[in-house]
Amino acid sequence: MIVAGIGFRASASADSLRSALDRAAQGRAPDLIAAPADKAAAPCLTAFAARLGVPVQAVPADRLAAMETPTQSARVHASRGTGSVAEAAALAAAGPGARLLTPRQISEDRQATCAAAISGETQ
User: Fold this and answer.
1) Which CATH number is 84's domain given?
2) In what order do the strands lie in the sheet with 32-36?
3) Separation of alpha carbons 87 and 121, rounded Å
4) pLDDT classification of 26: cutoffs 50, 70, 90
5) Spatial separation of the C-alpha atoms in residues 19 and 108, rounded to whole Å
């Protein structure tokens, strides 16, 4: 299973999310989109997921904070307890043994980030 972890600003649009996904997924279609629980119902994210035809998984704040990520943003760490929301969401939703396919990628308009992870069960 491929999970697209998404982080985004309040001003992001579905096009912002698409740009970040295109950079992170490298042609692979995600099976699931993961986002912080407090943003999982945001209109831009729900519209984007509907366009892709994939579900959104809300990742609780404590699970995001528990994930170690290769990207380390001091600002994000101060507010979210992890170095990258996108990487942490992707890894948390992909489950035990998951690994990143791509680290956090930033949308062209710099309003969204996306990282892709593959579950530990996928060969």
Assistant:
1) 3.30.420.180
2) 56-59, 32-36, 2-8, 112-118, 99-106
3) 18
4) confident
5) 6
| Surface-to-core class of residue 34, CB atoms within 10 Å of its CB (0-12 exposed, 13-18 middle, 19+ buried) | buried
Q: How many domains does the chain have?
A: 1
Calculate mean pLDDT across residues 84-110.
Answer: 94
pTM (2 d.p.)? 0.92
Q: What is the mean pLDDT of the chain?
A: 92
Phi first, then psi: what are they for 84, rounded to 5°? -150, 120
Has residue 123 been placed in a domain?
no
Confirm if 34 and 54 have CB atoms less than 8 A apart: no
Domain of 65 in residue numbering reads as 2-118
- Three-state SS at 33: strand
* % of residues, the chain, pLDDT over 70: 98
Backbone angles phi, psi at 24, to 5 degrees: -85, -40
**Averaged pLDDT for residues 98-106:** 94
